[in-house]
Design a protein that fits this description.
Blueprint: E1 8-15, H1 26-41, E2 50-54, H2 58-61, H3 67-74, E3 84-87, H4 93-106, E4 112-119, H5 126-133, H6 149-164, H7 168-182, H8 196-201, E5 204-206, E6 209-210, E7 220-228, H9 229-234, E8 240-249, H10 264-277, E9 286-288, H11 294-303, H12 333-337, H13 341-356, E10 370-377, E11 382-390
Parallel strand pairs: 2-3, 2-4, 9-10
Antiparallel strand pairs: 1-7, 1-8, 4-7, 5-6, 8-11, 10-11
Helix pairs in contact: 4-13, 7-11
This protein binds coenzyme A (COA).
Coenzyme A (COA) binds at residues 91, 126, 133, 136, 149-150, 190, 205, 211, 214-217, 292, 339, 378.
């Protein structure tokens, strides 16, 4: 017997505003995003068969584990007794959760899956936040010796800049582009445009990186509904298609990797995702990448396949703009839309949904047919790459 696998579609998407949202709790944010996705899809929430909750740090920031059960209970679907499970892969949790939804629908096990990503990060003070965000690194061999996310990104940047003669301006341009795009995104954490000078001269964080090279500490939630073709057609809905999905792991500690600036997880996941979708890198209409630090924006452009190693600097002045050859982060990216760990990767799908449905307003990428979405854990320990396209 030949088994025909179902295609998986995103039939609804919604998110909260990203930012410092002190007036809202973890559960309120999650439910707000979930309801927006349900409303956007025009379905009944009772149709959802499984809920995957993407979250990274609620256990240590908010003292709340068992996120799946919490979300199911507070969103009012507990009475349906559907499974509700948390998926955690550091800052790649969002991509990882969507991949599980994709596999679940593709296998035929479920016809409708909700993925909800949430993180509430601003309820603790700066120094404590540094310690808590360092928990996604190798605590014993990196964090214990002072290797915070910013410190490791800075060391990587120094080596990369020295080896490939890349100047600070190339890094700054990644942030300038993010802020420009975020100024057109009402959900973004920072909506102010920044100049190259501001990006180059802001407060130092870890030499050579300054405040404008760092993604902020953000609260927020995002949700999508992943459905089978059968469910979509039966209910006369439409959506965008998940063309392919792939993930790859690398060593957790940066010092164990082959190269400090080679993001092998991104490279492998991108190659697999493109090949599964039957696409080449030049076919990609736009990319949402995981630039938690500006240096990663450059490295990812290279390892995802858009430029050779050391050459991303040639793309950052024109080609990454909304109307450029390969628009980067129309949402505003991690630098300016924000990086609420568990919600970040799911938020990339919300952006892709808006773009491919031509509902992205001022930041619309004209004629976009598909998107590459890259969700990355920590300093590159894991990557999940999805290709999504017109239904
Ligand atoms: N970009 C732009 N502005 C930022 C910012 C950022 N990344 N982070 C903070 N700000 C602004 C705040 O809005 C505030 O502005 P205001 O004075 O006008 O209100 C000001 O800078 C100070 O904010 P504060 O919250 O006190 O900053 P901080 O010094 O505690 O934190 C960082 C700044 C860079 C250390 C923090 O954002 C950070 O750690 N970011 C990286 C997170 C991370 O590592 N993520 C990936 C993990 S794998």
């Amino acid at each position: 017997m030949v088994t025909v696998l179902s295609d998986a579609y995103i039939i609804g998407a919604g998110e909260t505003k990203f930012g410092e949202l002190w007036e809202k709790s973890l559960r309120e944010l999650a439910v707000e995003a979930g309801l927006r996705a349900v409303e956007n899809a025009g379905i009944y929430s009772r149709d959802v068969e499984v809920l995957y909750g993407s979250n990274s740090l609620a256990g240590i920031i908010n003292g709340q584990e068992n996120i799946g059960a919490l979300l199911s209970d507070f969103s009012g679907i507990a009475e349906n007794h559907i499974p509700a499970i948390r998926i955690e892969a550091s800052t790649a949790s969002g991509g990882a959760a969507v991949r599980q939804a994709y596999l679940a629908v593709k296998s035929g096990e479920y016809d409708l899956v909700m993925v909800g990503g949430v993180e509430k990060m601003t309820d603790v003070y700066g120094s404590e936040t540094l310690d808590l965000t360092s928990s996604v690194l190798d605590r014993e061999w990196e964090a214990f010796f002072g290797g915070t996310p910013a410190a490791l990104a800075a060391i990587t940047a120094r080596k990369y800049m020295a080896d490939f003669k890349v100047d600070k301006e190339a890094l700054a341009m990644i942030s300038v582009n993010d802020h420009l795009n975020a100024s057109k995104n009402p959900d973004a954490h920072y909506r102010n445009k920044i100049t190259i000078e501001q990006a180059m001269n802001s407060t130092p964080v870890a030499e050579p990186l300054n405040l404008m090279d760092c993604s902020p500490i953000t609260d927020g939630a995002a949700a999508i509904l992943v459905a089978s073709e059968k469910y979509m057609k039966k209910n006369k809905l439409d959506g965008i298609r998940i063309l392919s999905s792939a993930d790859a792991q690398d060593y957790l500690a940066v010092h164990s990797r082959k190269s400090m600036y080679g993001l092998d997880s991104a490279k492998i996941a991108s190659q697999k995702a493109l090949s599964k979708a039957g696409m080449k890198i030049d076919d990609v209409s736009f990319v949402e990448l995981h630039d938690s630090y500006s240096i990663y924006g450059l490295l990812e452009l290279e390892d995802l396949g858009f430029a050779e190693k050391g050459k991303a600097k040639d793309l950052v002045y024109d080609e990454i703009k909304l109307n450029g050859r390969i628009p980067v982060n129309p949402s505003g990216g991690l630098k300016a839309k924000g990086n609420p760990f568990g919600a970040t990767g799911v938020g990339q799908f919300v952006e892709a949904y808006m773009q491919l449905k031509e509902k992205a307003g001022e930041r619309q990428v004209k004629g976009a047919k598909n998107a590459m979405l890259h969700s990355m854990g920590g300093t590159g320990s894991m990557s999940v790459v999805h290709m999504v396209g017109d239904a």
